[in-house]
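Note to self: keep these together.
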Amino acid sequence: MPLLEVNRLARAFGSVRAVDGVSFRVEPGEIYGLLGPNGAGKTTTLSMICGLLKPDAGDITVDGVNFWTDPPRAQGIMGVVPQEIALYEELSGRENLEFWGRLAGLDRSTAKARAGELLAALSLADRAEDAVKKYSGGMKRRINLGAALMHRPRLLLLDEPTVGIDPQARANILEFIRGLCVGGTGILYTTHYLEEAEQLCQRIGIIDHGRLLAEGTLAQLQERLGGDRLFVAEGQLAGARPDSWPGFRERFRTLQQTERQLTVAALGSRDPADCLRDLLALPVHIENVTVKRPSLNDVFLQLTGRDLRE
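Structure:
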């Protein structure tokens, strides 16, 4: 049974449909990545799942029970890490954890013991008594994550938990998140960082303008663009109109074009060597052609016509 199942979820703000018929599920021990640019509908989706917003339509099922049948039960199963850090700056890291633990229903002694466990696991035991206002951005992100884990949730909602921190701090948080899955925790992870989704998530959903455009494993999403057969041609391409070239549209699909580069996916099951010869014979001056494995950004370009981070 999925820990979380979302079915045709929708929410509008006036005339803007922030979320429009989104469906997916999160299994125990799985990290499901919800990938999209800022404003795509990720945070609105998480806000509905945890009960901060009520959907206009659709169903949210947590561990087999509709969320709105018993919201306290569903919220007790999940932990939420918001994009904005939710900590008391004047309190220490330990005090913040104990406060959020008590708010989640832990008694005083259990909250104290659990805070100690998490401070050690998050490599913050040596700074436990310092006020959070003295922490670096990465340390605040770690305490923010710890606050959501105090009551040992089986479902964790992470809304861009690494925004604005340095690469080393990001790597530490990602490694900690991987470890949570070993015990069966299901994680819904929203991000607009390509490398995080590629490295971390077992399955990925791509969302834009409130709609889920595609989902699957990284390999399945790459296969949408022909597996390994993505080509980048470099040359004098200013003003070029590839789709007007004889036979081009039957052999290639254009993903992105600039004055110097043309990125295309090969259609059908043609040999890569044949594709390279076709590209070098285009009716413009081509200086170089390279073969690359499709990235999530390439998939996003194919689905939306714009870069993931635009």
